[in-house]
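Example record

One chain of 486 residues, shown exactly as stored in the release files.
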Amino acid sequence: MMNRTKIVATFGPACDNEAVFTAMLRAGLDVVRLNVSHLDPKALAATAARVRKWAARAKLPLAVLADMPGPKIRCTVCEPASFEAHPGQSIAVASGSAVSTPECLHIAYRHLLDDVKEGHELAINDGLVLLRVERVDREAGCLRCSVVRGGPIASRKGVSFLHSTLRISGLTPRDRQGILAAAESEVDFVALSFVRSVNDVLAARRILAKTARPGLPLIAKIEQREAVANIEEILAEADGVMVARGDMGIEQPLEQVPLLQKDIIRAANRAGKVVITATQMLESMIENTRPTRAEVSDVANAMLDGTDAVMLSAETAMGCDPAEVVEIMTRIAAAAEGRFDSRQWLHRMETVATGPDDLDDALARATCQLALDAALDAIVCLTYHGTTARRISRYRPACPVFALSPSVEQCRRLCLTWGVEPVEFPQGAATRARGKDRPVSELLKAALKQLRAQGRLPSGARVAFLAGVPLQVPGGTNYLRVVEVF
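Predicted structure tokens for this chain:
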């Protein structure tokens, strides 16, 4: 049986091989992440098609997530190529494209002197170097800074402004190009980097509205201070969020990151939106075949907190054994899920406000309660758009959830939803019989027959079956029946 927590892995040179990638799929990979920072539109389409072909040959489901680079501010090319900043040293920071030196760093942000104030801090190179602004020198056109925390500075390293509110668009021209390319290729999700407010999500929606795939799901990466403050509004518009702990650990005090992770996961669970936990989950496995105990504990705790998915980055893109990393992640999931208390989770979610679709949500919750009380073997839902399956997932049932849909696209998207095993239900089986819509009882028989033939349900299994009548109408789940598989 598959794990309930889904595994996302980043594609890169280490797994750009059919044998290695197939081994990752067989080890438990559910979603592959394509980093658009390293792919132009043509390469994005080609890579998505390639991994899709490999998954089809392996006869295993796979979703593809395109991760946009976002508005990352970097220093210019350095001369020398790398130099050390020492504590107490004075260094200037100026706007422009000139070469950066040990005396003056240049960054491409024209509102620098207006948006950054005395006392603000700048983190460089993933926070290894920390500068404090001592004075805004308008005459010289630069910030006069002192080095608080020393370390190496090299060409094109990222610069984070820890206390400043910058006038910067959430979507760069490259992001807009990447979103359009994702809509034209075989991508199932788009992740938006450095989201600050709901306006960034809405801007991406407006771009997609002009394409043939306006409903392409958007995942907002939560890493900025503003995003943490605006999490509820972002969740209301995004299809999911990612706890991006890398830049979050620069923007926020390190000791706050575990607490923010829990808060974001809880907020996503309440909203019924998918949540991915990412960054340095099994970082040591880039070079080693075995993770640290601390990493294993970190991953397991994210799973116990209720994350839908965990994400691997350089571990699979550049690591020494990508398939082994996925295998380890799968083993951690199996152990953590063995201790997951579905009844306690259901009780915890009793107080969640469900919004306008109360009846559908109440039915999903009641089904999960029924599955617990009657010790059912599975929940089977017939869903066209995946909504029913996502509602059930929100309540973390103790038994497997099989989501049958005639939509290949929706089956792929459900690869990111906790506890749901998507199953393609042929269009003919899901629609007509004798020239009219099939009765739901016939669909039930066809669904159970298919699951039995595929070895997903044994004879004698008791399952809860959900569907909406009429079929293919979004929402409106109104049919629940407990049956035994013969």
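Notes: The radius of gyration is 24 Å.
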